[in-house]
Design a protein that fits this description.
The complex is a heterodimer of chains A (about 550) and B (about 250). Chain A folds into 2 domains: about 60 residues; about 450 residues, Cytochrome c oxidase-like, subunit I domain (Cytochrome C Oxidase, Chain A, Up-down Bundle). Chain A starts with 6 loop residues before the first helix and ends in a 26-residue tail after the last helix. A two-stranded antiparallel ribbon of chain A has the order 1-2. In chain A, α11 packs antiparallel against α13. Chain A has about 550 residues and is mainly alpha-helical. The longest helix of chain A is centred in the C-terminal third of the chain and has 39 residues. Chain A contains 17 helices and 2 strands. The longest helix of chain B is centred in the N-terminal third of the chain and has 20 residues. In chain B, α11 crosses α12. Chain B has 13 helices and no strands. With about 250 residues, chain B is mainly alpha-helical. Classes of the chains: A mainly alpha (about 550), B mainly alpha (about 250). At the A-B interface, α3, α4, α6, α7 and β2 of A face α1, α2, α4, α5 and α9 of B.
Chain lengths: ~550, ~250
């Protein structure tokens, strides 16, 4: 990895790491016993570790100058490994927290392990750790192949990938210590947020510079989605996280938004984190790995345009559906509901476009578990976008809000759509990235597929049942006109479903472990393919062998 | 025509990025900006009081422990919610809440009006082990809160930071933050009087966890739980236009 950098680039890497190290030392000194100090120590250890890695290979010979005429895949490989590691971690935390709801003593009477602190380690672990690394890795892969150009930087891809993971580490270790802003899916405190801005701007610049090198006149659809993901997440992140720290020696800050405005900003952020992190980015994956795996061009270019701009425009209005019947003004609630319902059009345009792409390749769906992962992802995408629009309708929301139905909906999307498309993409990507003939075991892919499907279905059905029962119990009246059930009655009714949900999650976690093992063995044990299609950028000599799905 | 335009657009990365920003900005601007300019968004309430330093510290513990993940603080305008939890929440009640803690999930009940519903002693027992008082509960136990001393040295800074954002804490409140925190949990101490002076007679001054000699995180959290829904009486006052008695001469 480091050998692929020139000595000048190695120097640059060391200088950057030194700056991060110094920042860590300063934070540790200022923070002292505050969690900020602990985070300073983590930052300096992180940069020192990477510094040691770079120094060890510092005097190795210069890389082959030929490297610049090849794709830059080293950061992608590390990104895939990190994706799987975070996936297993985040899903394990999910199973643990789920089990705590059924058996509360599984917190073992400690602060760091209580439900409230563990829950964000699960959400951040899977959304940002697993999902974010998958997005960074696949976006690096897709932008190079669809542009037929090498990434426009040697050190900056590493900076983006590892800097982003430092953010995730700060976030998760912070929750264990009780560092949180309490804004859902934006829990990390001000210094981690600032760091993410630096990383994200680098990501944006790197992406644009790579696109500028493209040998294709048109920018392929997958890149539209990745660009929307990068740009809009930056806007959302900055606006939602504006805050004043109590002092520069502690982690705690106060957000500049208060009360009802804060609620609106938070859910404008929260819902669009779903839109631009968990939807747009993964649609980018879909638009590349689906046609590659199915060996079929995307069904319709026009539908792609329609759904892209529909999603980009409509989603930003939908956040207020999280605040129906609250103290948020009625007109905002109605706007949110209206746009959420309209959102079904571009969402189903995407899902339909993807399913129609499979026409003529259904026999492959039957035989190839990897393609089946992608197909099921599309089906769940269609289902959960329908469910989302449905739940955004005020009277439906009156029943569903605050209940497990919301949790079930999120997991239909997160497990069924996000994780399935990610695993489908990983199984497509890994053999080509490491130049292997195939995955180590296609039987294990099949095992993973069925574990994942079963786990998702058990999870989602448990939460649908518990959510609807809960919502109905809360609003049931006796004939005398009094409330029929106490809150506690509704909680007691939840226990069987909480156990079922933990079991479904456990199956999904086992599937992820199988995937990690399969990827590991593919890299370790499968021989390098003797003849793999030339997978090199367009240097103006040979025609690129990159997949160029129809536009 | 439109397709032709798009054909051109997708040949320029910068143009495409600008188009994304334009398309994505509209919704947020239309829905968020007016919330600051339309006056009726947040009601005017004269009796709205501020969180005391102890309550604010308790609020920060509530945030730190992630209580918001299972408890909402937002009673919706639905009959069953009003009958179960009390009058529906008004925007003004979270006017000083940074961040708001409306929540999104009720694994446990709503807490918007839990203040005064149970005794301090009940809260302490419940936080030490919820299953001691509610056998069916699945809430985590928070025993260590009663053992952990409350950090009070920086409370003034906490109030200061909020004043910078527009919360009307006075110089006296900031200067006396640590003493007020102690006084609120020590009813017979000389520090207690200042709390009522600065934050109003309705402020609950009590021993909270039952020990007055030193402040714990338990004191702070219980003080916060007991103030929920009690910063203003606005939700209980009749805001509907008065009904006109029929005029018999007419």
């Amino acid at each position: 990895m480091v050998q692929q950098l020139t000595s000048g680039e190695r120097q640059n890497a060391l200088v950057i790491l030194l700056c991060v190290f110094v920042a860590g030392v300063i934070m540790a000194a200022l923070g002292g016993s505050d969690p900020l100090g602990m985070h300073g120590v983590i930052i300096l250890l992180f940069s020192a570790g990477l510094g040691a890695l770079v120094s060890r290979s510092f005097y190795e010979p210069e890389p082959d100058p030929q490297r610049l005429s090849q794709y830059y895949d080293d950061p992608i490989k590390v990104g895939i490994a990190l994706t799987l590691a975070w996936g297993v971690f985040g899903m394990f935390m999910g199973v643990w927290t789920a089990a705590q709801l059924a058996w509360p003593d599984l917190a073992f009477d400690a602060g760091w392990s209580s439900f409230g602190r563990l829950r964000p380690t699960h959400t951040t672990g899977v959304i940002f750790g697993f999902g974010g690394n998958a997005l960074i890795a696949t976006s690096f892969h897709v932008v190079q192949r669809t542009s037929r150009a090498r990434l426009a930087g040697q050190v900056s891809p590493w900076f983006v990938l590892l800097g982003y993971n430092l953010f995730c580490i700060l976030a998760v270790t912070g929750y264990f210590m009780g560092v949180t802003q309490s804004k859902e899916y934006a829990e990390p405190e001000w210094y981690a947020d600032l760091w993410l801005v630096v990383v994200w701007v680098t990501f944006f610049v790197l992406y644009l510079r790579t696109l500028a090198r493209r040998k294709e006149p048109h920018i392929y659809v997958a890149n539209w989605y990745f660009m929307a993901f990068i740009v809009v997440v930056a806007i959302l992140h900055i606006v939602n996280n504006l805050a004043i720290p109590v002092s520069f020696t502690q982690a705690k800050s106060y957000t500049i938004w208060a009360g009802v405005q804060d609620a609106m900003v938070q859910w404008w952020y929260g819902h669009n984190a779903v839109a631009f992190f968990l939807t747009a980015g993964f649609l980018g994956m879909l638009y590349y790995y689906l046609p590659v795996r199915a060996q079929r061009p995307i069904f319709s270019y026009r539908l792609s345009i329609l759904s892209f701009w529909g999603i980009t425009f409509f989603y930003m209005w939908a956040g207020s559906h999280h605040l129906h019947y609250t103290a948020l003004p009625h007109w905002v609630q109605n706007l949110g509901m209206t746009f959420s319902v309209m959102l079904l059009v571009p969402s189903w345009a995407s899902a339909g476009n993807a399913l129609l792409t499979l026409n003529g390749a259904w026999h492959k769906v039957r035989d190839d578990a990897t393609l089946r992962f992608i197909m099921v992802a599309v089906v769940f995408y269609g289902l959960s976008t329908f469910e989302g629009s449905f739940m955004a309708i005020r009277p439906v929301n009156a029943l569903s809000h605050y209940t497990d139905w919301t949790v079930g909906h999120v997991h239909a999307g997160a497990l069924g759509w996000v994780a399935f498309i990610t695993f489908g993409s990983i199984y497509t990507l890994v053999p080509s990235l490491w130049k292997r003939e195939r995955m180590y075991s296609s039987a294990l892919v099949e095992v993973h597929f069925w574990l994942a499907v079963t786990g998702t279905l058990i999870y989602v059905f448990a939460m649908w049942n518990s959510g609807i029962i809960q919502g109905l119990m809360w609003r049931t009246y006796t004939e005398e006109g009094t409330l029929a059930y106490s809150f506690l009655d509704s909680l007691v009714a939840m226990y069987p479903y909480y156990i079922g949900r933990a079991f479904g999650g456990l199956l999904f976690l086992l599937g992820a472990i199988v995937a990690a093992f399969n990827v590991w063995m593919t890299v370790r044990a499968v021989p390098v393919a003797a003849v793999r299609q030339a997978d090199v950028p367009d240097t103006g000599l040979a025609p690129g062998a990159a997949a160029t799905p129809a536009e | 025509m439109a397709e032709l335009f798009h054909h051109k657009l997708e040949r320029t990365a910068i143009g495409f990025v600008i188009a994304i920003i334009a398309a994505a900005s509209v919704g947020g601007i239309v829905e968020i900006a007016p919330l600051f300019t339309i006056h009726e968004t947040v009601e005017d309430v004269p009796d709205m009081r501020l969180y005391t330093p102890l309550e604010q510290a308790g609020r920060n513990i509530y945030i730190r422990e992630g209580c918001y993940a299972c408890h909402s603080q937002m009673i919706r305008t639905l009959r069953d919610e009003v009958e179960r939890y009390g009058p529906y929440s008004l925007a003004v009640e979270s006017k000083y809440d940074r961040p708001m803690l409306w929540g999104s999930k009720r694994t446990g009940p709503d807490l918007a009006r839990v203040g005064g519903k149970y005794s301090d002693f009940w809260h302490v027992a419940h936080l030490i082990n919820p299953r001691d008082v509610v056998p069916e509960s699945n809430m985590p136990a928070y025993r260590w809160l009663a053992r952990t001393a409350l950090e009070t040295n920086d409370l003034g800074q906490h109030l200061q930071a909020q004043r910078a954002l527009g919360v009307p804490y006075t110089d006296a409140m900031i200067a006396n933050a640590a003493a007020d925190a102690f006084g609120q949990a020590a009813p017979d101490s000389p520090f207690a009087t200042g709390v009522a002076e600065r934050y109003g007679e309705k402020t609950q001054i009590s021993a909270f966890d039952g020990v007055v000699s030193h402040l714990t995180e338990m004191d702070a959290l219980v003080a916060y739980l007991q103030v929920l829904g009690r910063l203003t009486d606005a939700a209980y006052s009749n805001t509907a236009a008065p009904e006109q008695a029929p005029d018999p001469t007419n």
